[in-house]
Amino acid sequence: VHLQTGQCGNQIGAAFWQTISGEHGLDSNGVYAGTSELQLERMNVYFNEASGNKFVPRAVLVDLEPGTMDA
User: Fold this and answer.
1) Residue 35, φ and ψ in degrees, nearest 5
2) Which regions form coiled coils (predicted)?
3) E strand or H helix that includes residue 2
4) Which of 58, 51, 54 is nearest to 27 (CA)?
5) What is the pTM of this model?
6) In Å, what is the CA distance from 43 to each residue of 1, 15, 30, 33, 49?
7) Where are the chain's structural domains?
8) CB-based burial label for 21 (10 Å; 0-12, 13-18, 19+)
9) Mapped to the 3 state alphabet, what secondary structure does 23-54 carry?
10) Which residues, 6 or more positions from 49, have their beta carbon under 8 angstroms from its beta carbon?
C-alpha cells in the first residue's frame, strides 16, 4: 500500500501514479490498454483489480485541506 500525506505528498503521488499507470499500460480510467503480457505480470504490486476490469491504485491519500485533492 502506498501512503501519500499532505499537499506535497499528494502532488508527488499523483505524478507517481501517472507514471506507474503508463508503465503498466493503463489508460486514465484504469483500464488495461497495453500490448505486453509483462505489463500484466506484476500489476498486483501497485493495483487491485476492481469490477469492470478496471485497476485501482493500492494507496491511501491523506490531507486535512479539502481543496488539495480537487486539482
Assistant:
1) -125, 0
2) none
3) strand 2-5
4) 54
5) 0.79
6) 13, 18, 11, 13, 9
7) 2-70
8) middle
9) HCCECCCCEECCCCHHHHHCHHHCEEEEHHHE
10) 43, 55
What b/e string do you get for 44-67 counting C-beta neighbours within 10 Å, with b at 16 or more?
Answer: eebbeeeeeeebebeeebeeeeee
Residue carrying the nine cell digits 491523506? 62
CB-based contacts of 38, cutoff 8 Å, min separation 6: none
| Nearest in space to 4 (alpha carbons), one of 46, 60, 65, 58 | 60
Q: What are the grid coordinates assigned to 57, written together?
A: 491504485
Q: What is the DSSP letter of 22?
A: H
At 9 the three-state DSSP class reads: helix
Q: What is the pLDDT of residues 15-64, one digit of tens each?
A: 999 999 999 999 999 999 998 988 888 899 999 999 988 999 999 989 88
